[in-house]
């Protein structure tokens, strides 16, 4: 039997609920009071919830709160209806409201269980507080580190700078430290954010930008020595550039540190110059002899010719021969003079590419005669060296002369013990790889004691008696070869027939290497 | 006519030796040239020599050693030293090496010749 809505709400057949309570005022009051209090409370809760959700916009799952509000309002309504039905038997209406309440409760309950894992995942206030504390700690630590680093940056004696690599590859100063400001006379405030090209004079900029570009393009550390004309004057810096990359591996910054080595450089040059003078001093004796020889020949032949002329004994062929001899001898002297002149010069010119074989040739020529006097023979093996090396030819010659001079001393010392010695072998060739030139100077002077061998390149180390050697020759030679990107090694060799000696091997790269590669080769 | 005086020249520089030999020959000396100390000593031992003209720096045996060797055999042989570089601690200037005269290179052959004449007791030529 289908019932209409009006019929459904028809209360005709029911009695009010109060009948069940026998209209006892005390029980009625208990129910009415309790239901009204519950209903009012239930009605107030959704107001508070809604207010909370609206005010705290960051509340997660706010719609659950609204579902809650709906369910509680429905619940409150059922309580008010309970009061109503005490007197008015609208049980159907009450039932419908309960049905709505049931659905709202069911929905809320289901939603709660469905959300439970996600609700549990929400950090509790305690957890939040702990993580806040950790964060605060982290911030403090970082701030302290930053302070420490900035105090490093600001107080370190090393000149430091940070250069930003712009998207177009150009360079701009981000910061320079006070040490750099002091060393260079540049103003940190004026430099900040400026393009390197605009911040520095064109000469200095042109000198350093290629270095920065190398660091940027290679993405590797670069170190080099540079001489810069700065507001404080000309200074020599040993500078190291370190690239800083972003996640994509692009160099975005360059950290640079520079050490002012002007003074050290000057001392070094002085020491080299001093040693050159010492070498020159020992050569002076030989030189005096070398110079007097051609002069003597000239004097004798001219006197001779003059005498023959005066005595009518001069035939044209003899006169011609004498004059040609005189010319030859003046050439010989001119060569010697040139050599002495260049040898004494302060730095011997800039770095250049040259054939090392020529240096060996002139070193040999310079001492061959002198050593010949002492019955020391210099034997050159056929040279197959074609590769050029980079450096200062005169410095290499100085190294070779120093090796000859040590070889000679060893031979003379060995002879003093009664043993036979007197050969210096010099060889130069390209190595098989075609990248290096190898120069070997070998003597038969008895060799070096194994305990001494590791020290021979140490500055001021000498085995010679006081006054005989400065102990600087080999260490300076080492420095010169190192400056050319090469290395020098020494070892004892057996030469057969019971003869022993030392072999110095100089390996010079044919291609000038970057200092980074050099570091690598030393590792 | 008397036999000419025999001069031994010890000099490793061939061109110098050759010119001096020619000059002294023109002045009437008989000249023998040795290219080093050892060769000079051999000549001295095997031939009669009246005077020695020597360089100091020579291969195999230097002039100083040569002079010492000769002085052991003959205390009075006139010696003329031609040197490009006289070592400061050389004692050749000492009396005990005399008769000995030292000339720096370049030498004047006339002076050498005059000195030889004087040391050998010959009359000086005009």
TrEMBL record, chain A:
Catalytic activity: ATP + protein L-histidine = ADP + protein N-phospho-L-histidine
Recorded superkingdom: Bacteria
UniProt keyword terms in alphabetical order: Membrane, Phosphoprotein, Transmembrane, Transmembrane helix
Matches recorded under InterPro entries: ETR1_N (IPR058544), HATPase_C_sf (IPR036890), HATPase_dom (IPR003594), His_kinase_dom (IPR005467), HisK_dim/P_dom (IPR003661), HisK_dim/P_sf (IPR036097), PAS (IPR000014), PAS-assoc_C (IPR000700)
Pfam families: ETR1_N, HATPase_c, HisKA, PAS_4
Gene3D superfamilies: 1.10.287.130, Histidine kinase-like ATPase, C-terminal domain, PAS domain
Phosphoprotein recorded as keyword: yes
Residue ranges of every copy of the Histidine kinase domain listed in the record: 286-512
Domain PAC, chain residue ranges per copy: 222-273
Domain PAS: 145-203
PANTHER family linked: SENSOR HISTIDINE KINASE (PTHR43065), TWO-COMPONENT SENSOR PPRA (PTHR43065:SF42)
Protein's recorded name: histidine kinase
Species: Azospirillum endophyticum
From TrEMBL, chain B:
Chain positions found as 4-aspartylphosphate: 55
Organism domain of life: Bacteria
UniProt xrefs under Pfam families: Response_reg
Annotated CDD domains: REC
Key words of the record: Phosphoprotein
Gene3D superfamilies on file: 3.40.50.2300
Response regulatory domain residues: 6-120
Keyword Repeat: no
PANTHER family found in the cross-reference section: RESPONSE REGULATORY DOMAIN-CONTAINING PROTEIN, STRESS RESPONSE REGULATOR PROTEIN 1
UniProt name for this protein: Response regulator
Lineage: Bacteria, Pseudomonadati, Pseudomonadota, Alphaproteobacteria, Rhodospirillales
């Amino acid at each position: 039997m289908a019932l209409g809505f009006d019929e459904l709400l028809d209360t005709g057949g029911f009695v009010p609920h109060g009948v069940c309570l026998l209209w006892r005022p005390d029980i009625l009051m208990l129910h009415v009071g309790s239901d009204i209090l519950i209903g009012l409370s239930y009605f107030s809760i959704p107001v508070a919830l809604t207010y909370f959700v609206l005010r705290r916009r960051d509340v997660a799952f706010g719609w659950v709160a609204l579902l809650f509000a709906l369910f509680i309002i429905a619940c409150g309504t059922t309580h008010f209806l309970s009061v109503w039905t005490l007197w008015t038997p609208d049980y159907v209406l009450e039932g419908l409201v309960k049905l709505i309440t049931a659905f709202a409760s069911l929905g809320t309950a289901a939603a709660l269980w469905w959300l439970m894992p996600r609700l549990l995942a929400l950090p509790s206030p305690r957890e939040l507080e702990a993580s806040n504390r950790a964060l605060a700690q982290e911030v403090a630590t970082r701030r302290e580190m930053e302070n420490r680093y900035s105090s490093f940056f600001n107080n370190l004696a090393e000149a430091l700078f940070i250069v930003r690599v712009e998207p177009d590859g150009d360079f701009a100063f981000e910061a320079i430290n006070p040490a750099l400001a002091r060393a260079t006379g540049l103003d940190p405030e004026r430099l900040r954010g400026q393009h390197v090209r605009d911040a520095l004079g064109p000469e200095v900029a042109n000198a350093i930008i290629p270095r920065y570009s190398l660091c940027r393009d290679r993405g590797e550390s670069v170190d080099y020595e540079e001489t810069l004309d700065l507001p404080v004057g000309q200074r020599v810096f040993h500078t190291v550039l370190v690239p800083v990359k972003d996640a994509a591996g692009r160099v975005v910054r360059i950290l640079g540190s520079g050490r002012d080595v002007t003074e050290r450089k000057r001392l070094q040059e002085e020491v080299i110059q001093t040693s050159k003078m010492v070498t020159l001093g020992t050569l002076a004796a030989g030189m005096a002899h070398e110079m007097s020889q051609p002069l003597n020949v000239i004097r004798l032949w001219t006197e001779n010719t003059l005498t023959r002329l005066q005595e009518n004994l001069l035939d044209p062929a003899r006169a011609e021969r004498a004059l040609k001899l005189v010319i030859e001898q003046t050439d010989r002297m001119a060569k010697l003079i040139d050599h002495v002149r260049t040898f004494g010069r302060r730095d011997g010119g800039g770095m250049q590419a040259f054939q090392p074989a020529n240096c060996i040739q002139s070193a040999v020529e310079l001492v061959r005669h002198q050593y010949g006097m002492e019955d020391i023979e210099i034997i050159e093996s056929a040279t197959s060296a074609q590769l050029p090396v980079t450096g200062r030819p005169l410095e290499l010659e100085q190294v070779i002369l120093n090796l000859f001079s040590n070889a000679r001393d060893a031979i003379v010392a060995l002879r003093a013990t009664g043993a036979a010695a007197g050969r210096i072998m010099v060889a130069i060739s390209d190595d098989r790889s075609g990248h290096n030139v190898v120069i070997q100077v070998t003597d038969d002077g008895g060799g070096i004691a194994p305990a001494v061998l590791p020290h021979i390149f140490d500055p001021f180390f000498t085995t010679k008696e006081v006054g005989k050697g400065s102990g600087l020759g080999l260490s300076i030679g080492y420095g010169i070869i190192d400056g050319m990107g090469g290395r020098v090694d020494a070892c004892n060799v057996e030469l057969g027939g019971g003869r022993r000696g030392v072999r110095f091997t100089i390996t010079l790269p044919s291609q000038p290497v970057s200092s980074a590669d050099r570091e690598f080769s030393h590792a | 006519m008397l036999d000419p005086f025999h001069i031994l020249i010890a000099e490793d520089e061939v061109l110098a030796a050759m010119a001096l030999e020619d000059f002294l020959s023109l002045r009437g000396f008989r000249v023998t040239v040795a290219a080093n100390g050892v060769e000079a000593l051999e000549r001295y031992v095997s031939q009669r020599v009246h005077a020695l003209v020597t360089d100091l720096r020579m291969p195999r045996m230097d002039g100083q050693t040569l002079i010492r060797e000769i002085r052991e055999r003959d205390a009075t042989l006139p010696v003329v030293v031609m040197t490009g570089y006289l070592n400061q601690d050389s004692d050749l200037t000492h009396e005990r090496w005399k008769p000995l005269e030292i000339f720096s290179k370049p030498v004047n052959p006339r002076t050498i010749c005059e000195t030889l004449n004087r040391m050998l007791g010959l009359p000086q030529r005009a």
